[in-house]
Amino acid sequence: MSSNEVWSLLAILGLAVITVVARAFFMIPEREIPMPDWLRRGLKYAPLAALTAVIAPEIFMAQGALIGSLQDARLPSVLCAVAYYFWRRGILGTIVVGMLVYLPLHIGLGW
Amino acid sequence: MTWRTVGATLRHPLYRQGVSDMLGAGVGVGAWGLVTGVAMVKSGMSVPVALAMSLLVYAGSAQLAVIPLLAVGAPLWVVWLTASCVNLRFVIFSSLWRSYFVHLPLRQRLAIGYFSGDVIFVAFMKRFPEPRPAPEQVPYFWGAASINWLAWQVPSVIGILLANTIPLAWGLGFAGVLALLGVLLSLLFDRATWLATAVAATAAVAAFALPLKLNILVAIAAAVAAGLLMEAVERRRQGRTQDGTP
Asked: What is the largest CA-CA distance in chain B?
C-alpha cells in the first residue's frame, strides 16, 4: 500500500467518524438537553429548509450564478415534475417524468 | 441486538412500511450514488480507496465536497472541517431524532445516527409527527434505512467499478435532485411551510458564495425564522376573529 493510500484511508476513517458524530450528535448525551420552546417548534421547518437549500442551487444556478437563459433543460423538467407530483402524488413518477423531459433536452439539444 | 431481535424487526409490518415509503425516492438516491461513485474515481482516487470511502463514509454531500480536496492532497484538518460543516444540518436533525430514540442504548443510538440520511429523516418525521417514542418506530426506521443503504451503495459501487464507461455529461445526477424535490413537495401543506421553503430557496441561492456549504445553514436559520413569524401572525389573526380585539 502506498503512503498516499494510507493517507487517504486515514482521511476516510476520520470522515466516517464525522458522519456518526454529526448524525447522532444530540442523541449522544444521556441527560435532558434544555431547549427553548420556540426553538423546538421552529426546528420542524429545518428538514424542508435543508432539502430546499440542497436542491435550489442545483435547479436555479450554473457556475455559481443564477441561470440567465431559459434554454436550460432543468426548468421545463422541474415544471413538469412538480405538475406531475400535484396530479398523482408519487415520488417515483415525479423522477421519471422529470428525467423524460430533462434527458432529451440535455443530451439532444445541449440545453 | 441479538439475531432473534433482528428477525423480529425484519418481520414487523412497520419494517415493510419503511421499505415501501422509501422505494420511490430510492431511485433518485441511487442515481446520486452512481454519480458520486463515478466522480470519486474520475478525481483520480484508486478503486479500493473509493470503495472504502463509499462503504465507510456513507454521506453523499460530504463526499462530493471533499473529493476535490483529497485529489489535491489538502491537509487532513481542511478535509475534516469541510465535511463537518457540510454535515451540520444532520446535527440539527439529531436534536429531533433524540425525542424518539434517547431511551435506546448508546450503541443503538449511534447506529441509528450513522444510517439516518436526509430522505429517511423526512419520511420518518412524516410518519411520526408527534415527537414521542413508540415501539413501532424502530422497525420503521430500519426498513427505511436498509432500503436507503442499498439504494445508495449498490449504484455507488457500480459507479466506482464502471467509472470510465458511465458518462457524467448525461446529467443522470439530476434524478437525485428530482427525488429530493418530490420529497420536499410532500412536506408542503400550508402557508407557513410554503413560505419557509420560498425563504430557504432564496437564502440558499443568495448565500451560495459562502464557503463549506454554509449557505445550507443560512437557509435553515432563515426558514425557521420565517416559519415562526408566520405562525405568530396566524395566531394573532385567529385571536382577533375569536374575541374581536387585536
From this structure: 71
Contact A95 B112 (CB under 8 A): no
Q: What is the pTM of this model?
A: 0.86
pLDDT of residue B138: 95
> Chain A within 8 Å of B225 (Cβ-Cβ)?
yes
Number of CB pairs < 8 Å for A and B? Answer: 275
The DSSP letter of residue B132 is S
HEC states along chain A? CCHHHHHHHHHHHHHHHHHHHHHHHHHCCCCCCCCCHHHHHHHHHHHHHHHHHHHHHHHHEECCEECCCCCCCHHHHHHHHHHHHHHHCCHHHHHHHHHHHHHHHHHHCCC
Q: What single letter denotes the amino acid at residue A79?
A: L
Q: What does the pLDDT look like over A35-65, one tens digit per residue?
A: 888 888 888 898 899 889 989 999 999 888 8
> Which pLDDT score, from 0 to 100, does residue B1 have?
58
Could you tell me which residues come within 8 angstroms of residue A99 by beta carbon, excluding any fewer than 6 positions away?
A77, B174, B175, B178
Q: Which residues, numbered 193 to 222 in chain B, qualify as contacts with chain A under a Cβ-Cβ cut-off of 8 Å?
A: 193, 196-197, 200-201, 203-205, 208-209, 215-216, 218-220, 222
Q: Please check the confidence at residue B3 and state whether its pLDDT lies above 80.
A: no
| Minimal CA separation from A56 to chain B, in Å | 5
The 10 Å Cβ neighbour count of residue A21 is 18
Q: Is A10 on the interface with B (CB under 8 A)?
A: yes
- A98: which 3 cell numbers? 422529470
Domains in chain B: boundaries:
3-187, 189-246
Three cell numbers, residue B179: 427525488
Mean pLDDT, rounded, of chain A: 90
Q: Which of B178, B125, B127, B18 is nearest to A97 (CA)?
A: B178
Question: pLDDT digits over B153-192, tens only?
Answer: 999 999 999 998 888 778 888 998 998 899 899 889 888 9
What pLDDT is attached to residue B242?
Answer: 63
The answer to whether A5 contacts B49, with C-beta atoms less than 8 Å apart, is yes
pLDDT at A99 over 90: yes
Q: Are B96 and A32 in contact (CB under 8 A)?
A: no
